[in-house]
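Form 7-S
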Amino acid sequence: MQILTPLLCLAVCLGSTTRAANAGLPTATDVSAATGQDNSPSKTGGAFVIGLSPFLDVSAKDAVYRGLVRLIVEDLPLNTKLEVYDAFNLKSITRVSIPNAKVFNSPKTRANQFAQSIGEIKQFLARDNAKPSGPPPGFDGAIRLPQFCEFLAQDRPLQDESAKLPLLLIGSPLYQDAREPDFSMVNGYFPSDGHLCVSREQSVFGFNPGDSQRQGLLVDWAYFGDQWMSELHREKVTRFWALYLERRGGRLASFSADLATALSAFSSEDLGRSAASNGWVADPAQTKPEMLRVNRNVQLVDWLTGDAPGDTSPPPPSQLVGPLKIGIRWKEKIDLDLYAAPRRDAETLFFQHTRSPEGYYFKDHRSSPGREYEFIEFESPVDVRKVQAFVNFYEGSCSGGPRGEVRIEFLNHIYVGRFAIASSEGNQGRSGPSQSDFWTQIPIREILGINEAAPQAAK
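Output:
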């Protein structure tokens, strides 16, 4: 890929011609001895950080390069340092130190002095980095923000609790990591607030003691393209990152698909709005670290959320292999969880493992009194005789134990059944022989009306 560089004639001439012209300009040594000083240093102590995705789309790279060159040669104040990193692989790209000398108010001086750093940014953007293997839509623009925050905090202990470190992120706000696939935000997923109150061992978005006391980040985030399942998905992801950063003592200052807006906010160190001012406050009732999902079209879950079908006892299926959806719904304000696997030796889908080769897990993103629900869809054909499904009473209290409805969609029919759990209290998902009262198995064969004499059309 060739990145165009005509931001300024200075930026275009970063080759040997420009280096030759440097002879008439002050060197860094000359500047350090200069007496002309500027009395308006950076608000936050002179440090700026940029985190780039190594997987930016080719169509965005030229705009990113132009914007970063302009930032270096024109927009950053004197007496500042800029560090640029690969925010996915956690590697340094380049560093720039702008002295507190009036001569560096000149874009021409900066372009010549920082030609090497500008070239290193250009080389990074020019690379065509191989993306990790993963489910569609891949790793377009991926950034690993939790790991990047930890990486930055290691060498930056807080000197002043009120200080903020301006951080510009350029890449997708949808977290994706091949090593942490269950925390992916693509395809409409976003983290529950429960991730904010658990440890890093339980969630990549969790916190260990002392995390909230680390370097406060003032984050401006620029992304490209329409990455959202819906406007609601965008809002949920934005809200989560705002709460996550404030949990670390920082702030999401801006969040935009417009790079120029993010660059302007970053260089001016605009504080932006707090999460609370946007009406975003962590829900104390959400204690479970799970990935929730929004749908592009509510009709996709009508089979489960709508009224019971007129024919609640359709005939047994004419064949036994095909795509299948199984869901549960209940009325009490308690937390129930659905677990299902297509066969005994396959991956089990549930709130902490939301995707598998055969399908995905979905939980309603809303609190819907009388309409609480979640379901699992096996998009790949499964043998319904081998599917296993269970319901767990995770959290809450319910006199007499929870009761609810099971719905199974198979071969264009909706089958309805019931489930009941003996315990009147939740057990946080624990399993084992002593926990049987907190679980119940869904009788799939019985609900579908399958017996040994059913047609064996699977073959």
